[in-house]
Amino acid sequence: QVQLVESGGGLVQPGGSLRLSCVVSGINFGDFDMAWYRQAPGKRRELVARISTSDTLNYSDSVKGRFSISRDNAKSTVYLQMDNLKPEDTAHYYCNVPQLLPPWGQGTQVTVSS
């Protein structure tokens, strides 16, 4: 079965940076788009960024210009570089395979606060 293991979250001050990683197993990673999602307390889970198998990138308007998604097919890993973080970026972050949507992993918490 597909397993998703996210890491890299933490507490950071506004304007700071974090890099999230997600290791994926159970699929031929290079055959699928990958995406990062987030869920803030009391809000619905939302799509943050998506990368296709041909490295086409898509971002939500709220993170465009600040976040960057990338992938390493040899390591079955997708990354989310987050720069110029804002308090409204505080959320639990998850990766997933949008074409399959297997069970969610444990995610990683990102808290942006001074």
Description of the structure:
The protein is an all-beta fold. The chain contains no helices and 10 strands. It has a 6-stranded mixed β-sheet, with no helix packed on it. A 4-stranded antiparallel β-sheet has the order 1-3-8-7, with no helix packed on it. The protein is globular.
Key descriptive features of the protein:
114 residues, mainly beta, 6-stranded mixed beta sheet
Give the strand line-up of the largest sheet: 2-10-9-4-5-6
| Quaternary status | single chain
| 3D shape | globular
What sequence of helices (H) and strands (E) makes up the elements?
EEEEEEEEEE
Strand segment count? 10
Low-confidence stretches: none
Question: How many helices in DSSP terms?
Answer: 0
What structural class should be given to the helix and strand makeup? Answer: mainly beta
Strand content: over 45%
Q: Radius of gyration over alpha carbons? A: 13 Å
Distance between the termini: 40 Å
Q: Mean pLDDT, rounded to whole units?
A: 97
Helix proportion range: under 10%
